[in-house]
Design brief:
Strand content: over 45%
Largest sheet: 8 strands, antiparallel, barrel
Strand order of the largest sheet: 1-2-3-4-5-6-7-8
Number of helices: 2
Helix content: under 10%
Oligomer: single chain
Number of strands: 8
Order of helices and strands: HEEEEHEEEE
Length: 181
């Protein structure tokens, strides 16, 4: 794990070689984690957020970085643990594809984003149980510049956690604000 993290940080520190376009982006997404699939009848939807840190490569249509996020308090709706809550925190490397405004001249620009990494689940059902699992997410959205260094976006992600017991899947629609620098 340390080797993976060291390699990932090395990639983030490589120069972007892009003079006219922003090199970095810091984004905050707020939304709802809507449980999908077979677990929708067991877990309630919850509030979710994520913080993304991206580095853009030349010519600016490709970026890579990391995402830290959380889906807070998925309440258990039925069964012996009804009323208890499951929280999730994830840390995933991410890759983003989509042109910057300076490249297209468009006001509204689509993008795609995907990643995979560690999802930590904590269940408070009488006693506290926790586990870490691999998971993946993919999605996209549309972004628009509010100012030269400020963007607003509508973002939707599909998260799939590779937990044999639950295999929790959810859709995370949200509003994203990004600072470019």
């Amino acid at each position: 794990m340390r080797g993976f993290l060291a390699a990932f940080l090395l990639v983030l520190s490589t120069p972007a070689h892009c003079e006219e376009l922003p090199d970095w982006a810091l984004s905050l997404t707020l939304g709802q984690a809507i449980v999908a699939g077979g677990e929708a009848d067991l877990f309630a939807d919850s509030t979710a957020f994520s913080l993304d840190y991206l580095r853009f490569a030349q010519p600016g249509w490709f970026g890579w970085g990391a995402e830290l996020g959380s889906a807070l308090s998925h309440k258990v709706k039925r069964g012996a643990t009804a009323g208890s809550k499951m929280n999730q925190i994830w840390f995933t490397p991410i890759v983003r594809l989509g042109a910057q405004e300076e490249m297209t001249g468009a006001d509204l620009r689509p993008y795609a984003i995907f990643g995979g990494g560690i999802y930590r689940q904590t269940m408070n059902a009488g006693e506290r149980r926790a586990g870490s699992f691999l998971g993946v997410n993919l999605g996209g959205g549309f972004e628009v510049n509010l100012r030269e260094s400020l963007q607003l976006a509508a973002d939707v992600r599909y998260h799939y956690i590779l937990d044999d017991a639950n295999s929790l899947k959810y859709i995370f629609p949200g509003a994203r604000i990004t600072i470019l620098f």
